[in-house]
Design brief:
CATH topology: Nucleoside Triphosphate Pyrophosphohydrolase
Oligomer: single chain
CATH architecture: Alpha-Beta Complex
Distance between the termini: 18 Å
Strand content: 15-25%
CATH superfamily: Nucleoside Triphosphate Pyrophosphohydrolase
Structural class: alpha+beta
Helix content: 10-25%
Shape: globular
Number of strands: 17
Radius of gyration: 20 Å
Length: about 300
Amino acid sequence: MKDTKSMIYPSSMLCFAPKEAKRKKKAGPAHLQCINVRYDGYGPDRTHVPLQRISWIKSFPRYMPSQYTSEDVLSKPQWADPPMDSPKVRVPAYNQLDGPVDRRSHHGNYKLDEGVPRNPRGRTGMIGRGVLGRWGPNHTATPIITRWARDKTGALREVEGKRVLETVAVRSRTGWALPCELVVPEDKSVFSLLGFGTRRAFLTELVRNKTRTAAEDASKSLSQLFAEGTVIYRGYVDDAKNTDNAWLETVSVNFHDNSGTKFGSFRLAEDFTWVEAHFSLNVFAQHKEWLREVVELHRAHW
C-alpha cells in the first residue's frame, strides 16, 4: 500500500506531517449511537427519530427535538463556547478557523439552522450542545499506539502464521476503548494529538524516581516516537454525545513501535494497558473498525 505525506487537518492544531495510508475516501458513519436512546446513556430522553427520517432531506414536519445543554457546559469553562444568550456574546466564526478554535469540519462546510450549526449526519432527537463544549464540530484525537505481541520468552507471538499486534487501550463502561480526547487548541506541540490523559499514560511513570536530566531525556525520546504516524481515519464520530447542533469528529493516527524496544520502555499508568488487537476484542464499534485497518496495514493476525 503506497503512503503519501499529508498534514493532519485541522492543520492549525497539529504541527507534524504523518503518513496517510492511501485508501478510498469515506463519507463517515451514520450516527446510530445517538438516536432513540437516553442522552449519552444517562441524560434526558431524545425525541424518537425513525431511521428513515434521520436525513435532513427527508420531510419530518412533526419533528420536535428535546433540548439539553449540561450545567457543566453552561458554567462557561474555558473549553466551551459561552451560551448564545450571554450578554455581548460574539457569534462564532463557523466553518473556518476562529482564533485558536478550528470550527471546520473534515466533511466540508456544514449548514446553519437559526444561527447554529446543523449536524451533517442528520437528526439526533436533541438540540443544544449536550455535554459538548463547542457548537458544531468538537475535534478529538484518537492515537492507536501499537507494538508486536510477545510470549514470556520474548519471542514474537504468531497465530496462523501471522504476527499479533498489541494496542494501548482504556477500560470503558462496556469493554475497551482507544484513548480519545479533545484537542486543546492552544497546544501546538506534537503531543496535542495525544491529549493530556494519553500523555499522562506514559509520562506519569516516566518522571518517577528519575533525575531531572534523565526525565528530560526520556521525555525527548517519547516525543520523537510520536513525531510521525499513519493516518487511519479523520471525520465524524458516531457517538452518544452528539446532538443536532454539536458533534464529535476525530483524527485517528497509528503510532507503531516495530522494534518493540521503544514504547515498551515506558511503563503505562494504571488505567491504561496493552491488549491484543483481534476480532473478538470487546471494543467500541468504530474503534474496532480502525483497529482492523491498522491490523491490515501491518499484515497482522485479526
